[in-house]
Design a protein that fits this description.
globular; 5-stranded mixed β-sheet; alpha/beta; Alpha-D-Glucose-1,6-Bisphosphate, Chain A, domain 3; single chain; TATA-Binding Protein
Length: 437
Amino acid sequence: FTIRLASSFGTELDPGSIVTLGRDSSRSAQVAKRAMTSALLGTGVNVRDLRAAHAGVVRHDVLAGKSVAGAHIRAGDDPDDLEVLFFSSGATPMSESGQRAIEKVFVREEYRRAHGTDIGELIYPGRAVEQYVERLERATDREKTSGATLVVDFSGGVAGLVASRVFSRLGVNAVVMEGFTNANVAGTGHVSDSGERFTEALDRVGRIVPTVGAAFGAVVGPTGEDVQFVDDRGEFVPPDVMLACVLSRMRPRKAVLPINLSRRYEELVEEAGGTLEGSRTGLNNLAIRADETRADVAGLADGRYVFPSFLPAPDSFMTLARALELFREEPLSRVRARFGEIFGNVRRKRLDCPWAAKGRVMRGLAEKFGGDPDAILTDGVKLNLDSGWVLMLPDPDNPLFYVYAETESGAAANGSNSSEGLATEYAEVVEALISSE
């Protein structure tokens, strides 16, 4: 499968093009990258092999013009799964049209074959990491980061390989734990999903932060993309609250958030004189929209932040650097106290929906609500109501359907949660369409 996928990818590129590849530390990713390398070379595409490197280094290599596209291979949440992230020439996630083009070649098995001197060249670049660190330093206000103290747990991911170089260049005193594990890192998904291990990491970081006088602590996911924060008092800051803290302190001119997040974020941005752009849900859509609009910041409220001026994708080191700039002078504990334990009042319902029923459900929703002038059909069906909003959205990767809802008041007069009631009301509409024939 991996060879066929890489052959399809290479066929869509011009002969002689250069592609940058990187991987995480898992053995499955090592094997898969070697297979992808062979397949790409066989289509006449040259390969820049960065070996073990987090996705940010690969994206930077592409953005710097070293290659026309890139791919990062890493283990999935399930030990039997493997994720391959494809990047376009601008280091943004590959567009849906690009994905369809690769899928077309994959299904038809119409691969280009190179022979003799037309076979691609394998390149091992020498300064890819150094150039990434240099760009990060240029994008950071070193006066605000120099001399700061951090406590960071890298969850054994490959991002830990460059941690010492990054923190040294930024003048940061970092207490690094779980910096890098050679192979088969447990829990290679988002750090917030790793259960007991995540809790232990947060507790460990939280105990050390006040002891060493750190500005804050962080647990970085093994992918090197998401960051979960602990404030200067050692208390965990939920990711939705942390996003509010970042927007509050950053005061962005323009921010991009997915349409399933609370409207309170929009109010927060507009109160500071900025504008908020809505994007379709999902990291790829968010990153592309942030890059297109030249936003100052974008986020998913799950620990992944995008700062397009550096990279059009989440990167843990850029997130940590920005957080230092924002919370060095005003402590994170003081900022987060303004927002409580949760931000907004969005409620979500998850419904089982067979693949075969998704089209029928979407057609039914479009027929039922398509005539509403306030309905938005670009990503699922979103209804703007007098009391709030509702979003009914199919999961693109699983046989599931989601219903998100938020009311302006948050709680009804009888003390019940009106957002919960609104979500339940429209979940029943979706369930009726799922069960209909």
